[in-house]
Amino acid sequence: MTPPVLAAVADRVGGATLVWLGACLVVAAAVSAVAIPPVMRLATSRGWLDHPGGHKSHRAPVPYLGGVAVVLGVLAGAGLASGVVDIDARLVWGVVGVATGVGVMGLVDDLREVPVAVRLLVEVGAGLVLYALGARAQLAFVPGIDIAVTVLWVVGVTNAVNLVDNMDGLSSGVAAVAAGGLAVIAAANGQADVAAVALAVVGACLAFLRANRHPARIHLGDAGALFVGVLLSALTMALRFDAPRSITFAVPIMILGVPLFDMALVVVHRLRVGRSPFTGGRDHTSHRLTAVGIPVPAAVSLIHGAGLALSWLALVLSRVDAATGLLLQAFVVAVGGLVFVLLSRVPVDDV
Fold first, then answer.
1. pLDDT tens by residue, 96-116
2. Half-sphere exposure of residue 203, counting CA atoms within 13 Å on the CB side?
3. Any idea of the CA torsion for 112, 118, 122, 127, to the nearest 10 degrees?
4. CB 180 within 8 A of CB 235
5. What angle separates helix 170-188 from helix 143-163, to the nearest 10 degrees?
């Protein structure tokens, strides 16, 4: 018997489109997998390496440029979608183009370092362009307020995804899980274009995860983390479905709950101890889990599992009535608050 969610997806987008959406994932994964070895060789030959030291946990230099392979995979998947799936090409290529532009800035930051103020300006500009393209918040339906919320969401999510890139295999897995949940929700509501790009992100990130899991042979870098962060922020805002606004606003937050939770944990801790939130440190969720004796692979898997649970709850939230949705949100907030307090009590290295 066909699972209810899969049946709903097939009913909304059609069986043929569903097959092509799967092809977008496979093509993105294949291109990313093929691109990783030459990218690793290039980074090693040029000395573009992430050296250990300070708050970094790896013990030997690891090549950067993993983000380049992810970008190439997503571009390939999106290209396939634009050729065979009935999509809004302007939205798809606009979103992918903006994300690629921010990813290029991240690549420059990987190799030379870009001032924080410049990074923020670029991210704000990305938010404004995405608003103009239609990937925007629609909460107040007042242009000034919705523009501000859109920019804040883009900047916040982009940096949250970048911050969660702090342990082998973590960020690529978190992004793949979030994008997977986003793709299912989009497809179940007939948004094949959003689902296609999200599945391309899933494929590219899963392929990259094979080389990035502990011990990592290549790192995502700011190029990949910022690229994926912008994509996820834009695609979650592009979600449209018939539900009360009290539900629709919470679905993107739940999908991206893991990186947003980690960013909140880090910012609160650093402000409390008098450190700038923009500095690095070993005070993330992952570091706190390993500090209590959980091995790195297990800690990463636990965080991936939390992301999967939140994505599943976001899917449920998108398909229930307002009263049930509010109860579900309250449950997630209560559990998240308890975990936040418990993790905040774990002693961490503030270097």
1. 999 999 999 999 998 888 999
2. 28
3. 140
4. no
5. 140
Work out the mean pLDDT of the chain and round it to a whole number: 90
Which region among 25-39, 70-84, 206-220 has the lowest average model confidence (pLDDT)? 70-84
Phi-psi map region of 279: left, alpha, beta (phi>0 left; psi -120 to 50 alpha): beta
When pLDDT is cut at 50, 70 and 90, the band that residue 16 belongs to is low
Q: Strand pairing partners for 49? A: 63
Handedness of CA 88, 93, 96, 99 (dihedral sign): negative
Confidence of residue 4 (pLDDT cuts 50, 70, 90): low
Quick one: pLDDT at residue 17? Answer: 75
Whether 234 contacts 130, CB under 8 Å: yes
Q: Rg of the Cα trace of the chain? A: 19
Count of other CB atoms within 10 angstroms of residue 108? 15
Cβ neighbors of 75 (< 8 A, separation 6 or more) are: 31, 96, 100
Distance, CA of 24 to CA of 204 (rounded, Å): 10
Dihedral of the alpha carbons of 231, 126, 139, 175, in degrees to the nearest 10: 20
Task: Identify the bridge partners of residue 251 per DSSP, sorted by sequence position.
Answer: none
- Do the Cβ atoms of 251 and 307 come closer than 8 Å? no
Cβ atoms 275, 350 nearer than 8 A = yes
- Helical axes 192-212 vs 221-238, angle rounded to 10°: 150
DSSP string, 248-292: HTHHHHHHTHHHHHHHHHHHHHHHHTT--TTS--B-SHHHHHHHT
Report the phi/psi class of residue 120: left, alpha or beta, with left for phi > 0 and alpha for psi in -120 to 50. alpha
Task: For residue 248, count other CB atoms closer than 10 A to its CB.
Answer: 18
In 3D space, the residue among 12, 336, 57 whose CA is nearest the CA of residue 190 turns out to be: 12
Q: What gap in Å lies between CA 200 and CA 74, rounded to an integer?
A: 5
